[in-house]
Amino acid sequence: MSIINVESVTKKFIGVTALSKVSIDIKENKIFGLIGPNGSGKTTLLNVINGFLKPEEGQVKIKGKNTIGLKPHEIARMGVGRTFQFPRVFSKLSVESNILVSNPSLENTKKLNELLQMFDLMAVKNRLASDLGYGQKKMLELARAMATDAWILLLDEPLGGLDSKSIEKMLNCIKDINEQYGKVILVVEHNLDQLFSIADYVYVLHGGKKVEEGTPREIKSSKILHDVYFRGF
Ligand SMILES: Nc1ncnc2c1ncn2[C@@H]1O[C@H](COP(=O)(O)OP(=O)(O)O)[C@@H](O)[C@H]1O
Ligand SMILES: [Mg+2]
């Protein structure tokens, strides 16, 4: 069943068409990948889905409800969680408090400990978020998204800027979030091999247009992917 349906969305900025008639369909239980070179419209598409940006044309339906015009917090309340290309955490709060801001009812609960454990943050739970390394900040951001009752997470380049050990850890966390917690994931990623290792289905953007879609196996052998990444198209 389709749970997020983006249909023919166009988003323009002055001088740039960031998205041009883009359609994607997100179904239950799966990990969806969104790839494309820098500037191809990936972040803009996440911003349209979660209500940061209003497109000039097209429709977004979340669980059948038209969400164009709703505010980001209204869309978040519908169960759509989000992380950012550059992690956003509250620097002056402790790691634990950062998670509790997302969901105060978790205070002193098993679930809070479970999240700290899952994202490898237990040992630093009382430290200020500003003391964390970049990879830990990304983990904390994901823990904050998981603390809400979101059923889908939109992840913008979760592996960006991480060293190889943190990448491994992050990939495992993303898989767990999908497999153990049943969350749907739409993940933007630059590193194709790593994305292909976790995604069930992939959309390719280029110059604001959707140029290909399919399973990782199909995408890997796609001529268009090769053109987009290696020949400049
Ligand atoms: N707020 C904005 N104002 C003007 N142009 C923007 C804005 N956000 C994105 N763009 C432009 O839209 C295009 C797509 O950007 P973006 O969605 O960030 O790409 P990606 O995430 O794939 O790297 C780029 O040309 C970018 O410069
Ligand atoms: Mg981006």
Provide a compact summary of the structure.
The chain has one domain (2-88, 150-230): P-loop containing nucleotide triphosphate hydrolases (Rossmann fold), CATH 3.40.50.300. The chain is 35% helix and 27% strand. It has helices spanning 42-49, 72-77, 95-102, 110-118, 134-147, 164-179, 192-198, 216-220, 223-230, and strands at 2-13, 16-27, 31-35, 57-62, 65-66, 80-83, 152-156, 184-188, 201-206, 209-214.
Q: How big a fraction of the residues is strand?
A: 25-35%
- Output the number of helix runs: 9
Provide the succession of SSEs: EEEHEEHEHHHEHEHEEHH
Q: Which ions and ligands are bound to the chains?
A: adenosine-5'-diphosphate, magnesium ion
Helix content: 25-40%
As laid out across the biggest beta sheet, the strand order is: 6-7-8-3-9-10
Sheet with the most strands, sense and barrel status: 6 strands, mixed
Query: Which residues form runs of ≥5 with pLDDT under 50?
Result: none
Q: What gyration radius follows from the Cα positions, in whole Å? A: 18 Å
Helix/strand class = alpha/beta
CATH topology: Rossmann fold
Q: Please identify which CATH superfamily we are dealing with.
A: P-loop containing nucleotide triphosphate hydrolases
Specify the CATH architecture. Answer: 3-Layer(aba) Sandwich
Number of distinct beta strands: 10
**Whole-number count of domains:** 1
From the N-terminal CA to the C-terminal CA, the straight-line distance is 34 Å
Shape: globular
Mean pLDDT: 94
